[in-house]
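Open question from group meeting: does this chain pack into something compact, or does most of it stay loose? Before anyone orders reagents, we agreed to write out a predicted structure and look at it together. Recording both the input and the output here so the notebook holds the full record.
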Amino acid sequence: MHRKMGAEAWMPGLITKESQQNLDTAEKLCRAQRPAEALPYLEKAMEDPRNLDAWIQLAFLAPDLTKSTGILVNAERQGKRLLKQEFGQRCFDEHPDPMISRVGQFWSLLQTRPYMRTLQALVRIHQENKRFDLAAKVGIEMLRLCPNDNMSVREGLGTCLLKANRDADALSFAQAWIHREDGTSPPKGGCAFTPPSSAPLTKAQLDKLSSCVEGAIAYTAALASFRLYGDTKLARQYLIYAASVNHNVLLKVLGRVAQPKSLVSTPRQPNSTEAAHDYLWKAQDLWMEEKVWNWADGVPEVKAHVLKECSRAGCSVRERKVAQFKRCGSCHKAWYCGTACQKEHWKTHKTECQQHTAYKKMYRMITTKETNTGMLDEFLQGASVDMSQSI
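Structure tokens returned:
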């Protein structure tokens, strides 16, 4: 969540007014594709040591990922020092006294939010740098501090674990979230990493599966099961479940659509096309491996969720292969066997399509898009880091 939304928007005072104004100016210049002009304002904003968001913005302007990493690791260390000064030296430790340890209270305490955003940015940079072991390490720490996962770390952690060759941990993590008994967050945000179950799901377990689980977690369970145990009943059950939760992932995979090159900045709903896009940005290469792709394509029950029927009422034509039909280019919510059906259906589809488009436009107006452009290496020469001392 951006700092301008939620409680931080109406409870200012974490940083000085001048520092906030300089950061706002810098972000505005970045959105206008003028990063060189933003750097002096970021430098002024960083004069307030509590303004970790200025460090984050600077990291995304860095000329390479090594410097981006260095900036964020230094920001993390600074943020940790500040929080220990605020809440005590043991605030990061596990302790039953909530006044000694703040573990589990991160994000709910406003003072911790800039620190959590710093960790979130560090996960992103580690992913782009293909250091999935480090991305997983930081993500696990975020869920330890905030097991309720207000920042949706769980949507990407499973993929990081798989890419770090921690298949058993990935399955354990996914099962912890999928099979929650009371709907509350699992211990340590799913990172207790108990031995995963290889047993097929019972009818009672299948009946309890929720469509509210993030597709990324369901697909993690399917892929981890297949990598660990092969084409088992459990792996197929999770794959069918994943397809029912968000079929958009398998539409792209089985349709052999090119892997996304960046995350989207458009609004999203849970298990939407945009959510599938971001999952595939992280994980599509895992699904395109020949053995995995052939397995996913060979599960008949999956096709029921993936093959589309023409959206025009009265037309019963169904796809014979994945991604055969064309979808509405505006809302991505309707599919047509041909232009004739698309034109005829427009009078019916128009209202829904325009409402969805208006929603996306409104969302863009109230959110901030970070610009990942970078230059001016000289300003960033001090951004070095010893990774052995980082989270």
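Observations to bring back to the group:
The CA atoms of residues 62 and 84 lie 28 Å apart.
The first strand starts at residue 326 and ends at 327.
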